[in-house]
Write a structure and sequence with these properties.
170 residues; globular; alpha+beta
Length: 170
């Protein structure tokens, strides 16, 4: 069980901070059921309530600073996704995002970057689907890393790129 003050990744809402654990004061909601009250870190003026025993949406603690540093150092080793059927590409993108697993999200980002490079080399435009899911994936990953590393979310992309280039140069 999470505690007040914990940062968690909560499904497609991204990083949230637990602000309360207990019953919620809402008509029709049983008072004997425990809920997490959460504030999304990157969605202004929003509050989320979810049962403590909710098993339909991924909720997990964000990486610690040490875990995040090691994760970024090892990102270059993560392989892109293998997409067997082109018709299932978008479904795989959605499933990967909903997994809320940082390594899978990095795989997705790498997959989309490779696809963008291939399409551009062929003189084709980036698809709206690739653009959309790349943005969602980066937003998710960078949001968690920003909290873990104690940095501004807008600086995480440059930080990751710098670390990856330095490690690849070695």
């Amino acid at each position: 069980m999470f505690e007040v003050g914990d940062y968690v990744v909560y499904g497609s809402n991204g990083v949230c901070q637990i602000t309360k654990v207990g019953p919620i004061d809402c008509p029709g909601v049983p008072q004997d059921k425990l809920y997490y009250t959460m504030t999304p870190c990157y969605i202004r003026d929003s509050e989320i309530f979810t049962p403590v025993d909710n098993d339909r949406v991924v909720i997990r603690k964000v990486m610690s600073k040490d875990e995040a540093v090691v994760f970024v150092q090892n990102m270059y080793q993560i392989q892109s996704l293998k997409i067997e059927e082109e018709k299932k590409r978008e479904l795989l993108y959605k499933q990967t995002i909903l997994s809320c697993e940082p390594a899978k999200i990095v795989s997705l980002i790498k997959t989309i970057y490779e696809r963008i490079q291939e399409r551009q080399a062929e003189g084709k435009k980036v698809t709206s689907s690739d653009s959309k899911y790349c943005h969602i994936a980066e937003d998710s990953l960078y949001g968690e890393l920003a909290i873990s590393l104690g940095m501004d979310k807008d600086n995480v992309g440059a930080y990751v790129e710098d670390k990856m280039h330095r490690l690849q140069a070695v």
